[in-house]
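Continuing the batch. This is chain 6 of the set; chains 1 through 5 are on the previous pages. Same settings as before, nothing changed between runs. Recording input and output for traceability.
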Amino acid sequence: MIEKVRIRGYRKFRDVTVELREGINIFVGDNESGKSTLLEALALVLTGYVNSRVASEELNPFWFNTEIVDEFFAARAEGKKVQLPTISIEVFFKDDDRLQRLRGAHNSDLPTRECSGIKIEILPNNDYGAELEAFVEKDTELIPVEFYKIEWRSFADDVIVRRPKEISVAVIDSRTIRTSSGVDYYLRSMLNDTLTVEQRTQLSVAYRSVKEAMTTDHLSQVNTDLAALKGLYDNAKLSLAMDQTSRTSWEGAVTPHLGMVPFGLSGQGHQAAVKIMLAMARHAESARIAMIEEPENHLSHTSLNKLLKAIEEISGEDQQLLITTHSSFVLNRLGLDALRLVSDGVVAPMTSISNDTISYFKKLPGYDTLRVVLASKVVLVEGASDEILFSRFYRDQYGVDPIECGIDVICIRGLSFKRFLELAKVINRKCAFLRDLDKYTETELDAHYANYTTTSIKLFRGQVQHGSTLEPQVSAINDEGKLRSILGLSTTESPIEWMLKNKTEAALRIAEHTESIVAPEYFLEAIEFING
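Output for chain 6:
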């Protein structure tokens, strides 16, 4: 199990330490926040690969943190002799007898601590000191990676040349599943980890035997004919034989099939689901880590539900899952306690949320909790008519919709208010929530939510004398004739009675009309609070 990862100088991450929990970790953030970069950094240090290619082949100037690079060139322009930027990624493992070979004190922890771990460093190659200096003296803002080296070591300071066998790592990116018939590095790795040593040995021996038989039996006549060719250089005889070198091992020739269809030609959602299940079902001789990018991609709601159920059932104590998602369904189903917020190179864990609320959202995963998590500011309302009119009143006040100011207006059922308020409180999100009085007095409703209100989370409600719900609150402060005109009612129809029978339609007519109505005071207070 990974205890923590420290990333310095890699893309968005200037210097960040991410503590990981056992089991499932879910990373959520806006686009370009650094979620994928975090998993990419982990894959790099754990496998030596990025995007199924060896790190040395993928190394480029854009790996380096832009702030650090800008500071370096600015300092050089001022004549300062500062060191070239470097990248360091360290993974600290929890105590595990299987990882003793990786144990040592060659890490960045202070005070010095001996533990199991691996690190990868990308730093200038001192053999090219003169070339490096000549390059950075040029008019450039790119790091000369051609003169850099990659050092991959354990905390025991032993050089690593390939992924340690004690660690099983799977990287599944369902956004970019390849549809060719090829098998990528990570799938080959998973297949190898799934098979026992005896099975892999038997396959290798059998495959070599098949190739040898192909040479001796089926190519013999061809080789006889080729041997009769005259005029070859130095009288050498030309023949054909099956390649027996390591680069033609069975892994490169055997293609997985789903049913009767080659794996690469199956649907993308099916490929991703199979990879995830394969990653989680491997043998337990090694520490198992699976990194999954957006499992919801290419899957219908039903298929996604099946996949998440399977993940819950298969997930064991010896596995660690790191998942990025934009799906509230995934977040709710796997547990809000696993949430990690990623924003501009900073990763913040969920501090504390009650087991009761976690269980609530797991049972009812359809709630759009991610809107609360990702919004800059949140307004919670309990009905469609409240949501429609809040946006109209906000537009009347500021000339734009709330969402254009980073304010997300979310309609939720009354029984879920406290669940969402707890979530907003835990992640320290500014939140206004508007409630009908219903059967309560103003004082009773205030007391009902007293444990959830803070300086950044505030309740707004109407006044008892104006009615228990939104419609009478609107009717009480607006001219009846004007309301009747905006709602398109006859002179004999009562606006309040029609609004109570047609709540959503009434809100839509008010929202779409060119004329404005007077907003209830508690709506205006909420708008001022959330905008301020």
